[in-house]
Amino acid sequence: EAGVAQSPRYKIIEKRQSVAFWCNPISGHATLYWYQQILGQGPKLLIQFQNNGVVDDSQLPKDRFSAERLKGVDSTLKIQPAKLEDSAVYLCAVEDNFSGANVLTFGAGSRLTVL
Amino acid sequence: EDKVVQSPLSLVVHEGDTVTLNCSYEVTNFRSLLWYKQEKKAPTFLFMLTSSGIEKKSGRLSSILDKKELFSILNITATQTGDSAIYLCAVWAADGLTFGKGTHLIIQP
Questions:
Q1: A22 Cβ neighbours under 8 A, 6+ residues apart
Q2: Does A25 touch chain B (CB under 8 A)?
Q3: Is residue A115 part of a domain?
């Protein structure tokens, strides 16, 4: 958690409003992920970045979700307009190498409640 | 599509008990299996397993992988209230990193 800062930690909005989340990892991580974790489920990948470029956004609902990673460090995830089913924790993670294998280090997450 | 299934989904035990959490998987091109502990904050990394039969151990926690039967277990001995958390299993494979739903473990004093 110390290596990946996320904000805000909590956000409550009404449906059809917009929201943005920020992820600020310490520098030096080429690969960054956004995951959506709905209550009672495991994290689900939304988008993967390699430096500034998108590697995988196949599960990102592009009609309402967008994400960008400027300068290959910080990233933002935006939802516009939000739906009730978007209520979840949004986790940002970076990839670290651990004994030759890849391990994800997560931020504390941003909990979104859509009313 | 890669699949990771954890069981049980929830478990309540008393302090001092030993618990075993299960993770089975069906994936293409298995690379490694990861265990995470998630309290009310970021999932924190516990173990990474790549080879069958080699136990990884950290204090009261241990884990092992069986690549023939496609499963892993996470054991916690002499449980403490601080072990209460969601334990996530994830597998690196062809589809990237796929998570299970997690096991919600509650340790009662």
A1: A6, A7, A74, A75, A76
A2: no
A3: no
